[in-house]
Amino acid sequence: MTPKSQKWMQLPRSIAIGHGAIADTGRMCTELKLGQRALVVTGIKTQEIAGEAVAGILSNDGFSTDITIVTNADQENIDSVITTAENASFLVGVGGGTVIDVAKLASATLKIPFLSVPTAASHDGIASMRASIARDGDTVSVPAQAPLGIIADTEIIAHAPHRFLASGCGDLISNYTAVLDWELAHRLRNVPYSEYAAALSRMTAQIIMDRAETIKPELEESARLVIKALVSSGVAMSIAGSSMPASGSEHKFSHALDRLAPAPAMHGEQCGVGTIMMMYLHGGDWQQISDALQKIGAPVNARELGIPDRCIIDALVHAHEIRPERYTILGTGLNKEAARNVARITGVIG
Length: 350
What we know:
This protein has 350 residues and is an alpha/beta fold.
């Protein structure tokens, strides 16, 4: 039995990032000794973008390969993949967050490895040991397993809509307030804290902030930079054994918006806007956060998110109710007047 003073860290063993990297899928699977029966888990659109190509590469390299399509990150889709993967020795998740989270959870249930092949750089789940799943009308973060390998083809990722890359940057910049919340919880609630995981998480956010002006649409170097940072953020969570290095009050705000907004924006976009307001509450340089997001082309206010001002205020008021066991700067919540002031001062609402 593992002593309580020890904990397991799940980290990717192989990572390939670059132009045409998916061509190395078969070689990575061979080097990792994953077996010969692969199930490619992909989406309707991502099947055309890369799913069929990955399946073809694996077949040409001698692997027995099937494809299955998922539509949502929910238990029904996870169960469907588990049934289809009955004879598979490993899974390959080819797509965005929904696809990779389903592959991650299905492979963990089956106790077989999986490879992460992102087609966009929209969030840090591509390398982490946690997954987001729809449950009882909410999106919840649950433990799963980290991918054994990651293949990020910068040509494919660079040609995804820039909104996806900008969303990934918002998710990364939100590490700033997540770590501040984590430190606060450590001081006030004696929550376990890892200096190393916190430092790695901060570094990924700082890299994006420092290079904000260089992150441009359809530029492979931008895709490479963001993917590396997303992988590092996922590793920070694995080191910590929780999502706390990359998920704090700004994520609570985003999840509250998912509940309240008639048409929520992308996860990373909402986290970026949340970070502006949470940095204000922490007494930090929220304007610097806003400026960086603007340079990248990410939303910085309700109008750009496409969400009514009233939903921003309501989300601020109710955000503390999301994962109430996780202590953040929101404490026991903001009243409506305080929420309105925060949103107005930071320019999130007019």
